[in-house]
Amino acid sequence: MIGRKEEIHMLDNALSSGRPEFVAIYGRRRVGKTYLIKEYFNNTFSFYATGVQNTNTKQQLRLFYEALKKNGDQSSSIPKDWFEAFSRLEKLLSAESVTREYKSNRRVIFLDEIPWMDTAKSGFKSALEYFWNSWGSSQKDLMLIVCGSATSWIINNIAKDTGGFYNRLTRQIHLLPFTLEESEELLISNGIQMTRKQIIECYMVFGGIPYYLNYISPGNSPAQIVEMLFFKENSPLKNEFRQLFSSLYKNSDKYISIIKELAKTKSGITRADITASKKTVTGKDLTQCLESLEQCGFIRKYHDFTRAVNGCFYQLIDPLCLFHLTFIESGKTGSWLDMIGTPGYNTWCGLAFEKVCLQHIPQIKRALGISGVYTQAFSWKSKKTTPGAQIDLLIDRKDDVINICEIKYSKEEYAIDANYEKKLIHKIETLRAESHTSKSLWLTMITLSGLKKNEYSGSVQAELTADDLFGW
Fold first, then answer.
1. Which of 471, 285, 439 has the alpha carbon at shortest distance from 368?
2. Do 241 and 320 meet the contact criterion of CB atoms below 8 Å apart?
3. Helical H runs in 239-316?
4. In Å, how far are 3, 32, 44, 160, 472 from 9, measured between CA atoms?
């Protein structure tokens, strides 16, 4: 199995704990949640069932009934409600012939996509609560795993529930996209030969979503891959953006409207800015949408110590969203191969590479030798100075240093010239003036291909390249 070392360690501990285990695994669609559990348990469960999107309670119960029959239930009718369904499951799990995990001898239940099982007024959640609290939680050899792409449902209805599920979860696994290092490992295992620069080019479009990366076929350049997957008549990912959000949210338009608003600025905006746009939701609805988008990894939330603002900032970091809104949504791009080298393409490359770096801050910290130092990382834009200044990434460190990270996408070594040196000096001076910080400000260059040594590169305290983003 590629990557997932921490998650596998958590599952190992759960299997060997000697007590009832209630595990929730969540993360955005296509990230590999179901694959992880099925591979780990070799597709062998005491009971497995999955919810299906856009079906009613009767249909969900019918599917659950089919899963019960497959695992030995002798009943001749569909359960009349979820309480009866879980009562039958309890009886099935109590049988001597029940399938057990071969190493631990545990009975393992895997309920996949449970948010889809919880249809309106179905009573699913109450029945699951009763099943676990009245019986499951007393079975020392029982392991219940629930999974779902609708991350907010898992968190709000189980992880943060203040009712019957309060403090019932024994472990939570938030499955994140692959890092560049893990993406490279996946591509190699699929027989794909790419340079690290090419892998980054792919990551700038797909992110670290295994489902998308598995579409990459050997013998094609990143540009050819994008052309085939997005711009041909029957391209498999042409409508992925809309399908992704519609599968996660019942009212996907309001989430997309927030994504579009955040895409207008690379450094992030406040909740008040989002509300002021009048193109998105407001109030409690906005709070829930922002929390869900953050939980799914589409956006990041950060605090900026230099601004006296009540609240925090929200920034789009998902590569696929940026790519779709830049090139697919407008309908102006008919061929990706024709876009290469255009001003629009070059602008997108710079923004997309920044998103990649923002998703690899732990790797950047490791390369800087500060993995163990508490930090806050965020983009920054001046509010008082004219002309203004913008910094791609600030790493504010507890050891009295701030790394001012300039992120540059260039196929060749990046050369600092006299004009850019003046801009860098202005950025540092502006940050110092507006933040009133007494910390040391260290200029850090993060480039794709390295920094060219010349008379202007001496002010750079640290230099990182593509290899550093892969973790070594």
1. 471
2. yes
3. 240-248, 252-262, 271-276, 283-295
4. 11, 17, 19, 24, 23
The residue written with tokens 């191969």 in the block is 337
Same-domain pairing of 63 and 160: yes
The C-alpha torsion from 40 through 43 and 49 to 52, rounded to 10°, is: 80
**Tokens (6 digits) for 424:** 């860098």
Query: In this predicted model, what pLDDT tens digit does every residue of 219-270 receive, in sequence order?
Result: 999 999 999 999 998 899 999 999 999 888 888 999 999 999 999 988 888 8
- Residue 223 domain-assigned (yes or no): no
Which CATH number does the domain housing residue 382 bear?
A: 3.40.1350.10
What is the rounded CA–CA span in Å between residue 263 and residue 321? 8
Q: What is the pLDDT of residue 311?
A: 64
Question: In the numeric block, which tokens belong to residue 236?
Answer: 């498999």
* Residue 406 CA neighbour count, 13 Å, CB half: 27
> What is the total count of domains within the chain?
3
Instruction: Evaluate whether 417 touches 456 at the Cβ level (below 8 Å).
Output: yes
CB atoms within 10 A of CB 82: 24
CA-to-CA separations, 280 to 98, 158, 254, 297, 327, in angstroms, rounded: 51, 28, 6, 19, 22
Name the pLDDT band for 310 (thresholds 50, 70, 90). Answer: low
CATH number at residue 293: 1.10.10.10
Confidence band of 416 (pLDDT split at 50, 70, 90): very high
User: What is the b/e burial string over 444-459, where b = at least 16 CB atoms within 10 angstroms of the residue's CB?
Assistant: bbbbbebbeeeebbee
Cis peptide before 387 (omega within 30 of 0): yes
Lowest-confidence range among 125-139, 239-253, 413-427? 239-253
The torsion of the CA quartet 381, 382, 387, 389, rounded to 10 degrees, works out to -40
pLDDT tens digits, residue range 358-367? Answer: 999 999 999 9
The domain containing residue 286 runs over which residues? 241-317
Q: Are 151 and 27 in contact (CB under 8 A)?
A: yes
∠ at Cα 15 (10, 17), nearest 5°?
Answer: 90
Q: What is the mean pLDDT of the chain?
A: 93
